[in-house]
Design brief:
The complex is a heterotrimer of chains A (about 375), B (about 350) and C (about 550). Chain A is mostly helical and about 375 residues long. Chain A is about 60% helix and about 10% strand. In chain A, the strands form 3 sheets. Chain A has a two-stranded antiparallel sheet. Chain B has about 350 residues and is an all-alpha fold. In chain B, helix 6 packs antiparallel against helix 11 and helix 9 packs across helix 11. The two termini of chain B are about 30 Å apart. By secondary structure, chain C is α+β, with helices and mostly antiparallel strands. Chain C is built from 16 helices and 19 strands. In chain C, the strands form 5 sheets. Chain C has a 6-stranded mixed beta sheet, sandwiched between helices. Chain C has a 5-stranded mixed beta sheet with strand order 8-9-10-1-11, with helices on both faces. Chain C is globular and about 75 Å long. The longest helix of chain C is centred in the N-terminal third of the chain and has 21 residues. In chain C, about 55% of the residues are buried. Classes of the chains: A mainly alpha (about 375), B mainly alpha (about 350), C alpha+beta (about 550). Chains in contact: A-B, A-C, B-C. At the A-B interface, helix 1, helix 5, helix 6, helix 8 and helix 9 of A face helix 1, helix 7, helix 8, helix 9 and helix 11 of B.
Amino acid sequence: MFTFVVKRLLQIIPLLVIIMTLTFFVMRLAPGNPFANEKQLTEVVQHNLNRRFGLDRPMFYVSLKESYTTLRPDGTEQWQTRWIFPGWNTSTGTFGFFRWNGFDNQYNNYFIGRSVADDETGARMWEWGVVGGNFGPSTRFTDARSVAEVIWTGLPLSFCLGLLAYLLALVLGIPIGIVAAYRQNSLVDYASMGSAVFGLSVPALVLGPILILVLSLTLYIFPPALMEWWDLGPFSVPNIRFLVLPAVTLSAVYTAYIARLMRAAMLETLRTDYVRTARAKGLTERAVVLRHALRSALLPVVSFTGPALAFLLAGTIVVERIFALGGLGQFFLQSATNRDYTLTLGIVFFVSVVLIVMNLLVDIAYAFIDPRIKYD
Amino acid sequence: MARPDDFDIANEHHVTPEGAGIDEVLTGHATTEADLVKGSSLWRDAWRRLRKNRVAMMGGFITLVVVAISLVGSIGLLHDWTGAHGYERLARLSDILPYTFDKTSLEETNLSPSIHHWLGTDVLGRDLLVRIIVGGTISLTVGLVATAVSFVIGVAYGAIAGYLGGRTDQVMMRIVDIIYSLPYIFVVIVLVSIFERNFLVLFAAIGAVSWLTMARIVRGQVLSLRNQEFVEAARCVGASRFSIIFRHIVPNTLGPVIVYTTLTVPSVMLQEAFLSFLGLGVPPPFSSWGTLVNEGVGPMAIYPWQLIFPALMLAVTLLSLNFLGDGLRDALDPQMRKE
Amino acid sequence: MNRQVGRIALPVLAALAFQACVTAGAYFGATSPPGDQILYISNQSEPRSLDPHKTAGVPESAIMLNLYDCLTTYDPKTSEPIPCIATSWESNADASVWTFHLRSDATWTDGRPLTADDFVYSWRRLADPATASPYANLIYYVKNGEAINDSKLDDITQLGVRAIDAHTLEVTMERPTAFFLAMTPHYAFAAVPQWAIEAWGDQWVTPEHNVSSGPYRLVKRVPYDRIVLEKWNGHWDAARCVITRAVYLPVEDQNTAVNLYKAKEVYVLAGGGQSVPTSFVKALRGKKDFHINAEYGTYYYSLNVRRPPLNDARVRRALALSIDKKEICEKYLGAGQIPAYDFVPPGTPGYPYPDVPKYDPDLARKLLAEAGYPNGAGFPKIEIFFNTLESHRQLAELIQSMWKEQLNIPVELNNQEWQVFQATREQRRFDVARDGWIADYLDPNTFLDLFQADTFGNHSGWLNPKYTALMEKANSDPDPQRRLAMLAQAEAILLDDMPIIPIYYYASVGLKKPFLDGWYFNPLDQHPLKFVSINNDWRPDQDTGESVH
């Protein structure tokens, strides 16, 4: 198990490189630019902006050519390029193979790093890119120091909200699923599964406004949107009050998923022979269900909740928008619609790490839940 | 052949009842053999049991009615001049209802339900009933086709990864992780800008992501099944890998899989609305249930029928689909067959 | 099963019915005054930056207007420039050199005096290509502004602005620019503190480092949560300011904004444009705190004049003539938008608006037949492109329906994600594209300028040498009356060729609590806080109906 975990943790690095590279190109292939606005920019202004953020470089360009200057008859310099082939290199007077002339492109500069000149001293310094944990400045939130700072701003809220919704979904979904399975085809079963499906077909986009209408604008129990998150401290009483509606809205769909999956798996398990054996041994129903059946019935729920928790923690666009919350979901939506390449990559990086770790935890959990599962 | 130590849980056979004959153990699916002898196939057997389940039958009936209304309705109602993007094949037939889904009428905006407009009208004065019927075709097609895609890919992928295990499993699951992590919104935008608006891309865009969780669930189940005796037994009699995976293991995972499949339908239908937002899927003035619900949310305090009817349609269809799914699950359950 | 649905749906229905009752009354939501002078404003979106030279957005302008003083500021009722740092100004005969006289008691929040040199630095920074300001095109009217911004001129001191003394600023224009004064309250022309920028770089706009000169200063900024401004007592005009604190909340979702307003969590919906969803307009129209105000902007459709069949002016005119704009404005939009026939919106003093034919489907059919498509026969399929937004979609659906009905031509709709749409429009891969222009300053030039060259904003690709010549002649004419007459002639040429179909003039639709005084809905939607106050003695029965409409 230990080597398994270590191996998996080591896999994260190449995985992230692949994910980030794919994201980079997918993102850059999408039409649009980070500076587009309702008011269109003139070409010159656009060019200046591109230069400021290094977007005037080609997206990807690897050079096996070298550039050199020649003098025109009139004495002016002319830049030319030529391929460098293996063999005797006339321009440098050396013998060599393909010469790596570097790659001066966005991907490389952004991903690995670049050498920047200090404004005052003119000294060249190496600045690491994504590889060194430096995502660079956000083009959407220009006042922020860095992408990492933007992410840190949205993280606490998304994290609290996601965790709350997740716990709510587990606390509601698992018991409902168990009870429904245990009393299969009873009224309880139909009622709980019926409401679960209803919860599924009412998306957050509908549920959120309805909750606001009823609970905050008509009955005045909860505020319609979150205010002053930062002044109150993340888990203060007023903030929990603010978070109730968003968390309920968010958890509805997940509760329904968990309840349905739990019921199905439980039904399956309750009919297996080992449960029958357990019953035959004279264990109480409670012990049979909770100690023997529940464990292996949790498998599909665990498979589902791994990625689900990752996405919950990473912020949810619709709920954050409805309740005007400044979480990662809003930041991601902004970064996508504004083509804020650096921020998008930063958030994708963060989400990927959480997701991969969650899936690793799920795989570890498998082995604990069901000893038949072995990683060899 | 590794025998797990935990006697209580793991030592029992998953499918074969205690005391089953060696033949039955060897064929893995004792019951399949028995059914063949009786001349009744797995599917015929399932159908017999499904018929007994009244709730499931009702679910199936309502689903059929909804599908029929959407199909017949759309063929009759789609106005003939919008030959948009190859939709004209669905077009023209009759004038059962004196309204079309796209003819706006500023004299009749936001009317509440009445004899003339049974479900009221929308903000541009179009009859809501007609729009819901036309929307049903699109939502149901997307929901069912995309779900089928996710089912087929997800089950096959997850089962193969889970059964083969080791390095293959690692690579296959890391690919799933990568696809999970890509920013979906950009992938869709790139797809749209390359292929422009069409139905195939819509299915590709939905299919590309909806199978991922399915694959993980199936893999989890298969991991716990693959070391069991009936699988070992099947291996001993020389069954091919393909037959072990798809004939012996997969049927035992169908419970959660069918449930997850029915859960995919609503999420896919709602996803279609999101993709319409990005310019994929059906162009306006065509509607789908997802887009109708989205449109209805804003004015729901003032014109509630614009939200309630499409949402109700969606909910009723999904409820019936889910009860049908549950019935199917029970009917296909190898355990139940002996009871 | 169906009973189950009913059981869940009924309480929701009941709640909605209850909701409908609650919305009755003269005002929308709670109206009791808060008892203090802290103003909560719903501000549409999170600002990109609080640096006046690093952004071109609307939500930013509401904040920067109060943070950094300009030479002039907006009149709270009319949006016309009124004295601010500049107490008086004059220009030479052909409006090519402007001289501003600055007040001597203006200072920065760190105590330094605000002088003409600060403006010289700021305007050079605006023009500097290294700043890469999105609003740099506004400095192109100043001498050498464009050359510097385009890196053709490296010496930024060549910019046509200089400080004659500490309190006199002289601006030399590139060419005679009679409308320059109208641009001076714009935040791109604000003064920024050189020493703070040099000391802190991009970080000078954070609350810790920010140095400002306006009546309010920045005390707090939490992205996507709030921006808090506080009254600065050292300001030269501090005596006028009543509001002690202003809290700007970035609320992206219009429904959420309306909810917050109703619950009195915010007192006003700012940011201009349509801040209330269309579907609410009819229900809110009777409320006393619901305000409709004509804006200086036009919503229009661009027609691609380089693609058949729209390269034929008769076809373009037929399309324009068959849209019943009056009906669209009255029955669909219904929030005070005015049907647009001219491109320049009404409200320009002294501008002789050209007379343009209105809704005339018979003439449209005749024109279409002349162009070779009698009753739409043989007319190729055209597509309307728009970015995904409910209001754009609905309008396109209406127009599609009208064209089909009146002209019998096949029209398709195509919605795209905002950025994809912009690319489509810029590369002219459309037949018809949704478009809109809101004035940067109060002059017809900000509209007619779009079609001067084949550059940004001219999506239709229409060019006419006669038009260009007339525009150039007009803008170098020192006589305002003659100039406006020539501009109107140019507009007549434009509308005769119809590369665009104006559909309606924007109206800003807003909600404002009745206890809020001094906040007027004006053409440019700019609201300097120093004129605003909260009337804590306000009672519903004392309300006399303010003249804010």
